[in-house]
Amino acid sequence: MYSVEFIENKLKILDQTKLPFVEEYINTDDVERISQAIEKLEVRGAPAIGITAAYALALSIKNSTIEKIKNNFYSAVNRLQITRPTAVNLFYAIDEMKKFFEENFNKKNLYLLLIEKAKQIHSNDINLCERIAENGLSIFKKKSNVLTHCNTGFLATGGNGTALNVIKKGYENNLIEHVFVDETRPLFQGSRLTAWELEKLKIPFTIITDSTSAFLMQQNKIDLVITGADRITLNGDSANKIGTYNLAVLCNYHKIPFYIAAPYTTIDFNSSDKSKIKIEERNKKEIFKIGNHKITKEIYQAYAPAFDIIPNELISGIITDAKIFSKPYNFINV
Ligand code: MRU
Predict the structure, then answer these.
(1) Predicted local confidence at residue 125, as pLDDT
(2) By the 8 A CB rule, do 97 and 105 touch?
(3) Residue 189, annotated as binding a ligand
(4) Structural domain of 321
(5) Does residue 222 belong to any structural domain of this protein?
(6) Which one of 3, 147, 151, 193 would you pick to mutate in the ligand 1 pocket, going by the greatest count of ligand atoms within 8 A of its CB?
(7) I need a labelling partner for 323 at 20 to 30 A (CA). Which of 43, 66, 70, 78 fits?
């Protein structure tokens, strides 16, 4: 099962807004529809967004006349890059596709070549998810109770996931006792998506509200915390789903290791530190309702950042497909 698949010249996207109750797919070759799927979080998670955008760019020239190829491709670039600002993987995939487009512009069958390039970005992600999981095994010093936030499994990537794949690998190696899953307000990626993946993997888990983690830590019920990241700057500051910073602060107070797991491509080599990260702000309506059920008045003021930033000093290690990095972060020489 994949979050995104390219089948019969269309993109097949598993609609994550319907999970865990309904497994429904969006089949489309339309760039506007794909862009909306990214904006609405029908497809989400940093690596999965990048892969989706790569296929969308290939599809943008599927039916183009020669005269319109460049225009259609760059209109798609412009549309896709305003979908979600924080995850660097989106911009990485767009840049890779742009470079490939320019290098091969005069070749026949450019559409097919772009599809092959998008498939390559996708299969790279599948491989590096496995390397992240293997590299992550060494963080378990004993059979552990782990807490995670948001969703970092196969739904969020092209392969088996990042932080959740470390947990999966740990479980397979008898190094996981139990997984605590933050529900992850306001869109519940934890209680809807991570829970659904853990159910499929048959890994024992318990859902908690985001505000329960401190109490569990106080009772010594958490051995370590692992989350993903959407963008990592050169000094190791890491952006991830809103609420992750709370966890890192709590871990620091309770002397619990806090790890990030992410592909090497989540490192933003153009950004020195957290001040350079653009944080996406979501529509406040998302915190005024649960599903379609209103929980408060829409006239109230609200603030809905999608991500927060964990300063490097709170991170015990960043598990990547290359290796586990720790302070002082030197990502360049691997
Ligand atoms: O808003 P989302 O659901 O796309 O946010 C996803 C996260 O914050 C994930 O932790 C991150 O993208 C890493 S996914 C492997």
Answers:
(1) 96
(2) no
(3) yes
(4) 135-325
(5) yes
(6) 151
(7) 43
